[in-house]
């Protein structure tokens, strides 16, 4: 697991190796104790863990950016 802070939210990345030897990465966005998860490109075939993590981080940041301005919750409580 790798963690990043982005716009006062926490992003956790959980990469995994697929049966075919390629990588995928699940991300979790944590905001005010609420967790949002997403699986980035489950059908994609990233050849390295770093590529999968970079794609997942970008996807999580895009989700956060789409909910700006800051204070707009990502999820309903």
Report a brief summary of the structure.
With 77 residues, the chain is of the alpha+beta class. Helix content is 23%, strand content 39%.
Description:
By secondary structure, the chain is of the alpha+beta class. Helix content is about 25%, strand content about 40%. The chain has a 4-stranded antiparallel β-sheet. A hairpin with a 2-residue loop joins strand 3 and strand 4. The longest helix is centred in the C-terminal third of the chain and has 18 residues. The model has no long low-confidence stretch (mean pLDDT about 85).
How many H/I helices?
Answer: 1
Q: Globular, elongated, flat, extended or rod-shaped: what is the shape? A: elongated
Uncertain ranges:
none
The topology string of helices and strands comes to: EEEEH
**Radius of gyration of CA atoms, rounded to a whole number:** 13 Å
> How far is it from the N-terminal to the C-terminal residue, by CA?
25 Å
The helix-and-strand class reads alpha+beta
Q: What is the percent of helical residues? A: 10-25%
What does the main sheet amount to?
4 strands, antiparallel
Strand elements, count: 4
Architecture blueprint of SSEs:
Layout: E1 2-6, E2 9-17, E3 23-31, E4 34-40, H1 49-66
Name the descriptors.
77 residues; alpha+beta; 4-stranded antiparallel beta sheet; 1 helix
